[in-house]
Amino acid sequence: MSRHHKIVIIGGGSAGLTVAARLRRAGETDVAVVEPAMTHYYQPLWTLVGGGAAPVEESARPMASVMPHGVTWLTDAAAEVDPDAGEVTLAGGETVRYDHLVVCPGIQLDWGKIPGLDETLGRDGVSSNYRYELAPATWRFIRETRSGTAVFGMPSGPIKCAGAPQKIAYLAADHWRRQGVLEDIDVHLVLPTPGMFGVKVFCDALERVVDDYGITVHFTSEVTAVDAAHREATVTDVTTRETTTLPYDVMHLAPPQSAPDWIKKGPLADAENPHGYVEIDKHTMRHVRYGNVFSLGDAGSSPNSKTGAAIRKQAPVLVENLRAVMAGREPTARYEGYSSCPFTTSQSEMLLAEFDYSLTPKPSFPFIDTTRPRRDMWYLKRYGLPFLYWNLMLRGLA
C-alpha cells in the first residue's frame, strides 16, 4: 500500500508538532505527521519530577489532544527514507510518498552503551530522568538517601537538554541540605567537558553553585560501566582513557545518545558525524544534498544545544524556508543557533543560560540578570515554560 502527501513530517515530538501547527496556520492543507506514540510528553518537567518538585503525570497528554487540527496523523513509525524516490517506508510496510519532507524523529537513548546500566535502572539507587517512568524513582532514591556517596553523570557527545545531568545534582544537594544530611553525603558530578559550561559567565555561576554544595566535579570524564553487585561506577577520562572507580549509594546517569539507527544507516545522515544526525545547513535547516528535505530538533546536525528552546527558534525559520522552496525560491531565513538551558540550582532558584552558535549570551529578559540563580526564574521554569509549551509553542503561536 502507498499514499501521497504534499508535506510529510517524521516525528510528533516538540519539533514535529510545532512545524505542523505553523504550516497549518500558513495555509498548508496537505500535511501528514508520522508518529506511533499515543502520548506526548513535556520532557523538561522530568528534571523537576526527579527533584521532587512536580508530579510526573503533569508532563503527559494524549497525542490526539496536541496533534494540530487538519493534519493527517499516521500512527506508525518511520523505518526508512528514500530521498531519491521521495518515499518514506513505515515500520508496518506502508509507503508514503512526499513532495517535501521534514525529519524530526527525536534522539535515540543508547542505554546499552554503558554496560550494566540497563539492568539496574530503577532499582538499587540507580535512575535517570530521561525516561518518564524513572523520574519518580530518582526522587524516591534521593529522598531515601541520608548518607553515603552520590554520583551524577553525563556522557560525552550531544545529548538532549545537556544541563539536565547537572540540574538534578543541584536539586538533590539542595534537598539533602534542607534535610540536614548534606555533610554526610559525598556528592560527585562526572562531566565530559573541561568546564562547567561553554559560556564563561554561566560557567562562573555554576562553579559557585558546586562550591557552595561541596560537590566534587570530575572534568573530561564519563561513567562507562556500572557494577550493580558492588555498587561501583567505572569513570573513564575521555582524553587519556584512564579509568577509576567511584562507589555509589545513589546514582543518576544520562545515557549516551545518537540519531535513530534507521537514520544513521540511511542516505540522509552526515557521513562525517559519528552520531549519525541528518546533514543540514545549520542556518537554513535544509538538507545539504536533498533540496526538498529539511530537519530540525534533536535529530538534526546543527551544532546547537539540543533543547526545546532551540526548536522554538528553528521552527519558524524552517517553515519560512520550506515554503520558499515550495514556491521555487531559495531559502533566506536564518537560524543563528539560539538555545537556552534553564539551570535549576536549588528547589527555589534557577539561572537561565541563553546563547547562540558563537556562545554569546542572548538574554530574553534584558532588564533582568538571568546569569545568576533567581527565584523568579524558578517560577518561569515550573509554571511559565510549561504554559508556553502546551498553549503557544505546540499550537504554532510562539
From TrEMBL:
Natural source organism: Actinomycetospora lemnae
InterPro entries linked to this entry: FAD/NAD-bd_sf, FAD/NAD-binding_dom, Sulphide_quinone_reductase
Residue intervals of the FAD/NAD(P)-binding domain: 6-303
Protein name per its UniProtKB record: FAD/NAD(P)-binding oxidoreductase
Alphabetized Pfam families for the sequence: Pyr_redox_2
Stored PANTHER family: SULFIDE:QUINONE OXIDOREDUCTASE, SULFIDE:QUINONE OXIDOREDUCTASE, MITOCHONDRIAL
